[in-house]
Amino acid sequence: MRSSRTRSLRARAGLAWAATLPLVAGALALGAPAADAAGHDGGRHALQGTKPLWATAQADQGATSASAAVTARVYLAGRDAKGLADYARAVSDPHSAAYGKYLSPAQVRSRYGATHEQIAKVTDWLKKSGLAVTGTTQRYLTVKGDAAAAERAFATDLHNYRKSGHTYHAPSTTASAPAALADAVLTVTGLDNAPRLAKHHSSELPPPEGVFRNSGPFSSYYGSKTDKKLPSAYGSKAPYAIKGYTGTQLRAAYGAKKWTGKGVTVAITDAYAAPTIAQDADTYAARNGDPRYRRGQLSQVLPKDYSHIEECGAAGWYGEETLDVEAVHAVAPDADIVYVGGASCMDDDLIDSLGKVVDGHLADMVSNSWGDLEANETPDAAAAYDQLFQQGAVQGIGFYFSSGDDGDEVAKTGVKQVDSPANSPWVTAVGGTSLAVGKHDAYQWETGWGTQKALLSKDGNDWTGFPGTFNGGAGGGTSKSVAQPYYQRGVVPDGLAKANGGGAMRTVPDIAAVADPNTGFLVGQTQTLPDGKLGYDEYRIGGTSLAAPVIAGVQALAQQARHGVAIGFANPAIYQRYGTAAYHDVTDHPLGAGRDLAVVRVDYVNGVDSSKGTTTSLRSLGKDSSLHAGVGYDDVTGVGSPGAGYVSSYRP
User: Fold this and answer.
1) Peptidase S53 domain: which residues (predicted)?
2) I need a labelling partner for 381 at 20 to 30 A (CA). Which of 29, 370, 492, 582 fits?
3) Average per-residue pLDDT in the chain?
4) Sign, Cα dihedral of 426, 427, 432, 436
């Protein structure tokens, strides 16, 4: 969905019971001069992406009323947008003389931030057009006014268009800024209102959602419990799904060894804030063998008010924050964690959260388990995100985004596509695996995360429709809008990079970790119990929302191993290690060609208890829609998952 200013983004994790809670980013903004409009001298510079694809002649319902209300953000390009992008690359490239020569937030503002003169000129332009400037930051100006004023400012007509049975207004041509401000205006968001969601400003968040519980039987480690009476699959008896891996098992699987993340800070951004996060995280650590939190180790930076509470499903984001915090702490128990909550799940509010991390240099790396379809992304919002990612890169801050939970997205949307912001060339896209950790916490293998589900027949003699239907998998594939970044050249096969025809494009993901909810992570959270009271409970969870904080935790270990020197934007270093012992080269058939794998899972019908009965199903592993994990780079797991030598490879 899109509000009047942006898309509505959703938390990606929460794949506790095979439901998919989905997943923004990309290209750049200023384009070639457009024809001048009446009342503007000196020519115009187009702000690409401001006319949405759905604003077609066939859908045009005529001019928007001149009095219609418009709220928009005008993002500032700063004093040297190209220089920022160039330095972001140089400071992140191990082969560059500028590698690791990071800047402070003050230096970034001094070199690349918007000048007082730029802000004054943009403000003057907007006010003279009849728009009211309601807020000014170093990154953007917020404006309000009527459609007539917006049309004067951006030299475009607003028309009404039919879309999905509704009527919304949008620019009939690409919006533009005066040519004299071409170096000051990055882009504008909010000139379309499809749909305009009502805001429910409130400092009160709803209570947690209803409790979810996993039914047993469980394995305590992969393969520890098998029911010989159940039907065979792939020539053998499949074991029960594990109860949920803990930090001890994940640290062993991904080569943590002696490192704990000491001296490193990991930020987490999501929407809203779990009201019981501190006590839940501490209770979980005590119950599952993780070190207790030090005073001040977990902190939160929250907005004054929240909005779009109903539209965004605010309570559904509590579990996302809880998963992210507990997963980072489980992998990097000495790392500091700062949670930066967004006022809603809208682009503008999540950009504000990311901006707080960058402007205050609140962390060394940022884990983000949210996003949207690339088809819903527009270059205007992508430009705003990428500017932030570049500013973070020059400060030594890396951004990690989950790649999605619906494979190639065909089953969900009918169109093969990737998700965003994972498609941005300035973030690390984290894919997913199915993980087998055996007895004594020994790493056994991983497949790409892709699940097919088949229910046990009524007579218990076979798996109905074996191997079953697609039930979720790691997002991946080839972007249709973002060109291939330099660090993927020579690693990503042309068959993937050029899968859409034409030139090589950004391919997702970059790296991977456990994501399959059938081999997932045990999480603890206060939930609403069946009697209406609140209570702490634990359940197994997955999704690339798990993989992203796990990788962020591993990166915290690697930064500690690097004697605390910031890794920053990690992709050049990640691809530099391609093909080495730093990675598990994950394939869908780790035990050999033709040897498929599966687990058995039992679920409560009502998700809580056995009063309505249970269902038993077979969950086949390594079957991710049209995506495949194979030898070398692939579009499910990228270069692979961190191996025993990954963390130590960062030692000086």
Assistant:
1) 244-652
2) 492
3) 91
4) positive
Give dist(CA 219, CA 237) in Å, integer.
Answer: 14
Q: What is the dihedral of CA 109, 180, 144, 199, to 10 degrees?
A: -50
> Beta-strand (E) ranges in 137-276?
140-146, 158-163, 166-171, 176-178, 185-189, 265-271
- Angle at Cα 606 formed by Cα 602 and Cα 609, nearest 5°? 70
The H helix count followed by the E strand count for the chain is: 14, 31
**What are the structural domains of the chain?**
14-189 (no CATH), 247-650 (3.40.50.200)
What's the rounded Cα separation, in Å, for the pair 524 and 289? Answer: 13
The Cα angle at residue 126 between residues 74 and 142, in degrees rounded to 5: 40
Count Cα atoms within 13 angstroms, Cβ side, for 503. 8
In 3D, which of 115, 118, 28 has the Cα closest to residue 390?
Answer: 28
Helix 105-112 and helix 379-395: axis angle, to 10°?
A: 130
Name the residue among 252, 185, 208, 184 with its Cα closest to residue 50: 185
pLDDT recorded at residue 8: 65
Mean pLDDT of 376-404: 93
Instruction: Please give the single-letter amino acid code of residue 637.
Output: T
Amino acid identity of residue 211, one-letter, is: V
pLDDT band at 375 (very low <50, low <70, confident <90, very high): confident
DSSP 8-state secondary structure symbol assigned to residue 329 = H
Strand 614-620's sheet: what is its strand order? 469-473, 450-455, 614-620, 598-604
pTM of the model: 0.92
How do 505-508 and 477-483 pair as beta strands? antiparallel
Specify whether the CB–CB gap between 187 and 400 falls below 8 A. no
In whole angstroms, how large is the CA radius of gyration of the chain?
Answer: 24
Residue type, 11: A
Q: Is 406 exposed, middle or buried (0-12, 13-18, 19+ CB in 10 A)?
A: buried
- For the chain, what percent of residues have pLDDT higher than 90? 86
CA 642, 645, 649 angle in degrees (round to 5)?
100
How, if at all, do strands 505-508 and 419-420 pair? unpaired
Query: Rounded CA gap, 547 and 513, in Å?
Result: 5
